[in-house]
Amino acid sequence: MNQHDWRLAAAQKALTQILPGFEQSLQKKIVDTPLQWDRFKTRINQEWERLFIYLHELYGWQFDFYHTLEKTMEILIRYWFDRPPVLHRLDEKREADPLWYTSEKMIGIVLYVDLFSDNLAGLHDHIPYFEKLGVTYLHLMPLFSTPHGENDGGYAVSDYRSVNPDLGTMEELFRLAQALREHGISLVLDFVFNHTSDEHEWASKAKAGDPEYKEYFFTFTDRALVDRFQEHLRDIFPTIRKGSFTWNDQMQCWVWTTFNNYQWDLNYSNPSVFLAMAEEMLFLANEGVEVLRLDAVAFIWKRIGTSCENQSEAHTIIRAFNAMAGIVAPSLLFVSEAIVHPDEVIQYIHRDECQLSYNPLQMALIWEALATREVKLLAFSMKHRERLPDECTWVNYLRCHDDIGWTFDDEDARQMGIDPKGHRQFLNDFYTGQYPGSFARGVPFQYHPETGDLRISGTLSSLAGLEQALEKQDHILIELAVKRINMLRSILVSIGGIPLLYAGDEYGHLNDYTFLTDPAKVTDSRWVHRSKKRWHAADDLTRKDTLEWRFFHEMVKLCQLRKKLPCLKNGGMEVFDTGNPHIFGYSRANKGQKLLIINNFSEHDQVMSAVRLKDMGMRSDGYDVCTQKELPAGENVILRGYEYIWINIADSRI
Ligand code: GLC
Q: Do 327 and 47 meet the contact criterion of CB atoms below 8 Å apart?
C-alpha cells in the first residue's frame, strides 16, 4: 500500500465512525482501567489500517461490509478486556524483546499428550524432563474435543473451546500454560482452521438445515459444479478415498472435504466464518497459548479452475488474523504448516503473516542426502532457498507426526543432473527398504496409483537404520545407525532456525506396528511413528549403557551446546561448497563467533581439504567445539563415517 491509497483514508474514516460508539458503551470499564484502554487504542492505531485493507480485499464487495468491520471491532475489544493480566504482562515483555524466538536458546519438542503422559495432569509432572533437554517451545498435538474413533489424530476438531475429556479440562490447560511459562517454556498448539469435524456445532446446525450454518461450509447440490472444482484438485489421502467431496444424505448435498470425509472445509468467503474463527484464535491466545501452528494453510481459499491451494486470499486471511492478534495478543506467534512447493512455502513467511514456518524442504533433502550419500541437491537448494527475513525463522525438524513427502523443486534437481521423477521413485524404494542394501525401515503412505506418488512414514531411528541393525543384532550396523541419527540431530540443532524434536527422537524410539490391529488407525500408516512407548530418562539414569540413554545424553549435550553459542542465533547461515560430494558444510556467524560445521553423509572416511577450510575463513588453528579436538590450520580434516564437526574458527575459545 502507498500513502495515496484511498483505503488508508477509508480505514481512518471507518475507525472514527466505529470506535466512539464502543467507547460510549464501555464508559465504565474505560474509566476503571484508563491505561488499558489507552494501550488498546495505541494498538488499534498501529494495526487498523492494514486490518481494514485485508478485510476490504476479502469482504469489501459484500453489502454488509460495514457490519463486518463493526463486528471485528467488537471482537477485538471483548477479547482485549478478557485477556488475563498475566498475558498482558507477557505481551509487554515480548514487545521489549520482539525477536525472542530467533534466539539460540530456543529448542522445541512436539508430542501427543495421551501418548506421552496420558493426560494434561501427567504432562505437568514432566516439566523437569523438558528442562533437562532445554526445551523452550512445547507443541502439544491437537487436544480438543474430537469424534470418537477416526479423527485424523485430533485434526478433526468438534469444539475449539473444550479439551478432549480423556486428556483433561480447559482449566488444566490454562494452568499448564502458566506453569510452562514460569519454566521458560512457550505453549504451542494447533489452530486447525481449514476445517472442523462433522460433529462441530456449526456442522450439526448445517445438517439440521440451518441456512446460516450451511453457509459456514461448502455445500453443493449441483454435481456438475463439484466436478468443475474437482478437475483441478489433488487427492490428499488417495488410499482412503478419491476426490475432495463427500455426499451428505441428511442435507442431500455434497460437502467439501479436502482431507477425510469427516473434516468439513470452512468457507472463508463468508465473513461470519472468518470472524468466528478469529474468535477461536483469540480465545486460544487468552488461554495462554503463545504460538499457534496454522494447520493446512495452503487450502483455506477456493477458486474454481485452480488447484485451490495457495490462493492469494489464503495469505490475506492469515494476515488479517495476524493483525487482530497484533491488537489483542501481540505476543502470539504463528507458525505456518505449508507442506507445498518450496516457492509457495516461502510466501507464508513474513512478519505480518507467519513469523515462523516449518522447513519441509530441508527436512526432505536431509533424508535425500542420507539415502544417496551425496549432498549436492541439499546444498544447492539450501543455498538459494534458505534465507528468510530477519524477523522470521524456520522451525526445523527431522520427523514429525506426518509423513515425509519429497517436496523438492524439479528444476533444482535437474540442475544437479537428477531426474526428479526417477529420484522420487528411488527415495521411496530406499525408505521402504526395497532398494538393495537400504538401511531404512519406512512404511509406505498414500500410494497414488495414477500419479505414482508415495510418501513415507516411520520414526527417525527406524528410517536411519537402527531398527534393521537391531534386528540383525549387528554391532557395526548399530553403531553406524547411532552415528547417522546423531549427525542428523546435530544438523537439526546447529542449522538456522528453531530445532523441533519429535518426542521420541531424543531417545531413539523405533516404529510401532500395533496400529495395524486398530481399525481406527489401520488405514493410516502415520500411526507407525505415533507410538505410546515411552522411555523415562529419570528411571534410566542408572543404566547409562542403554542405547536410549546414549541418545538422550547426546541430545542433551547438543542442546546445551547450542544454548552457549550466540552464532547459532537465527540468521548468519551460509551453505558452502566443501569440495567433497559427501560432506555438507555451512557456516554460522554472529557476535564475533564463527563456526564451520561439516557433516559426512557417507559411512566412509571423507576428507575436507585444508584449502577449502582456509577459503571459508580458517586462517589459524581451530578446534571442534563438540569434542574439543584441536584442528591445526593448513591440515586436511578427516571425517569418519557420519561424523560431524563444529569447527570454531574465531580467535577466542568458546
Ligand atoms: C495437517 C496435519 C495432518 C492432518 C492435516 C489435516 O497437514 O499435519 O496431520 O492430517 O493437516 O488436518
A: yes
